[in-house]
Each structure stands twice: as C-alpha cells, then as structure tokens.
Please model this.
Amino acid sequence: MFRDVLAFAALPLAAAIVFTGIHTWFGLQVLRRNVVFADLALAQISALGATVGVVAGHAVGSPAGYGYTLLFTAVGAVLLTVSRGLAKSARQEAFIGVLYVVATAATVLVVDRSPQGAEHVKKMLVGGILSVNASEVWHFIVLYSAIGVLHWFIRRPLLAAADNAARPQAAGMTAFWDLVFYLSFGLVVTSSVGVAGVLLVFCFLIVPALIGTLFSSRIGVALTIGWAACAVASAAGIFGSFLIDAPTGALTVVAFAAVLILAGAVRALVTAPSDERSRNRQIGLRAAALVACVAFSVSGLWVVIAPAGDHPLLAAIELGIGPERFMTARERADYFEAAATALRHEGESDRLTGIERQSRWQGEPLGADEVRRIGSMQQTLTEMRRGERFVMDYLRTRARERERWYVGVPLAALGFAGIALMVWRRRRAA
Model:
C-alpha cells in the first residue's frame, strides 16, 4: 500500500518542493515590497491569458496557449511596475486589489463563452499537481534554476529596490529592477499556476516566506527555514490526500496553514525572548481557557435547545461515556445491533475494494462484467450501511433528548461559571 502511494506521490512531491524553492525567494521580496497580493493578481492575469487561449481554440499546454498566458502576464508585470509610482498618492495594495478583481471578472466573462467553463475555473483554482509528469518536473527544475541563478547575480539591486533604498534620483533604475522582478515573477507564476493552481501557488509564495521571517531577518536563514517547513507541509498535504481521499490542492493549502500556525506557536512560545515568551504563554492559556468555556456554554445550551442537531463537542464527550448510557434496554440492543451490521457491511465493501485494487496493480485486470458486479455490490452495501446508520442516528437522538438534562445543562453551567470566574479575576487584577 505504502509503495503504491509513494509511486503516485513522488513526482507531485518533487514538483511541490521545486515550487517551494523558487517561490520562497520571491515571497521574501514580496513581503519586503508590501505587495502580498501581487501573486494573486499576477496568477489571475495569467489564468485570464490561459482562458483567452482556450476560448481561442488552443489547448492549455500548447505553445500558443502558453504564449497567450505569457503575454497577459507581461502586461500585468508592467502594470504592477507602474503601480509603484502610484504609492505616493494611494496604497499600492489598493491598485493590486483592483487589478485582481478586474482580472477575475474578465476571466468569468471569457469563461462564460467556453462550453466547459466551470471545470476550467476549478482547474485554475486548485490545479492538478497529481497529474504532473517527469518531463514537466525537469522543465520546472531547468527554468526555475535559470531564474534562480539570474536572481543570485542581481540580488543586491533587487533587494535594494524591494526596500525602496534607491536614491530619489535613481528612480528610473528602481523602476527598471521592479520590471525585471515582476517579469521574472510572472514567468514563474505562469508556469506554476498551470500545474498547482492559483490557491496553491499563493501558499508556495507567502507561507514559506512568512515562516522564514518569523525566525530570522536574514535572507539565507529565512530561505532555509521556509524551505524545510513547507517541504513538510507539501508532503503532509500530498500524502494526506491519498490517505483520506481528498482533493490534493485544497488539502495541501490546509496543510500549509497548519504548518504556519504551528510555526507561529513555536515562535511565540519557544524561541521568543524570555519576557515575551512568558507573556505569550499567559495570553495563550487565557485565550484557550476562554475558548473552552465559550465552547462548553454554547454547546450545552445548543444541546438543551436542539438535541437532534449536530453537536461536535457532545460527540467527543460521548466517545468516553457513549450515548447508549441514556437509552432504554431495547434501544440499546437495537443500537448495538445496527452498529455491528454497519461495521460488517463496511468491512465487506472494503474487501471488495481491496480485490479490485489488487487485481489492478498485482494481478490481471478484472473484466467489465466483474467490475460492474463489484460496483453493484458496493452500492448495495453502501445503501444498507446508510440504513443502519439512520437507525443509529435516530436512537442517538432519542438518547440525547434525555442526555441534554444530564450533560447539556451541566456543560452550559460549567462554561458560564468559567467565563464569570475569568471576568471576576480580570476586574480584580485591574
């Protein structure tokens, strides 16, 4: 099983690491320029160019389609360069936001003329990193290595322009280096969006740079930390999508967010100076206690008011005590019987899935009739399992009508008591 997952995930993971490598460098410069959403704007303009190419009759990966994308991205790079001069009278981010909104609206208008517009928009947002092949990965390595080498040689003027450190009389050179930055940035974004999608490319750009700058202001150290953290996030997102059968792009974005939150916690609670670390821990404990008390009070009240609703906190409590404690003897017997039957159906469905997977990868492929028969059996087992779960949910709801008085009311009382205690201690300390 692990070997099959590794064989599928090797190329997507390699592509993700390559993306992280080049985008982290650009992300650090984007943060220095205070143009965080420039990536989204350029990515959306790139997607607009790809959409125009598709509507014009060119395939997404064709040279003509790529040409449309590069042309629109170059126009976006010029507009972003010009927007630097507008920062004297208005915020540059405002202009970038307008550029993004206009590009998105134009994309919607163009997609409306495409027979597969909805699917095209989805592909632009989440990409298809799982479908990347070896030749594409090598193409990214060569292209991004060339851009990385170029930026290494011109890093000083690029960083000076990013810090706005150029002399006023050298404004023309600053604009030139801005244009070089945005053109190369647009080339990277254009190449990445087609595979990873707009959302994931934004994560590759911003999240590693944010994590790096949390721990160091030095470019080299920030790059190393960002690369390491987001290589872990990429692996978690890609392998996790196989394990729980979830969309890879969306889950990888969530994994990046989780790594960013974890890095922020490490920075605040572990590596911060002693005084700041102690203060952060106190704030964190108080915030956690307040969140817990609010969750208890709201969940308890909600159980009392609507016992048939969804109650995540109550479900977590029931893992320890079990809803069957509040059922009659007959309801308890029916509940356990339905649970055992649902588990048996699920096991049989998993067995059929295993047979199909084993025949596909290790033996001779099943015939069309056998595949249809297995599919029909799995559908039947799924419907039967849903029926048993309906019985379980009905009996659980009956139990919760009694449980709300024994669990819901004490839970709400505990939450409100905790909030009152914290408010009282806060006023006493003041």
About this structure: The CA atoms of residues 335 and 392 lie 6 Å apart. Residues 368-429 form the longest helix (62 residues).
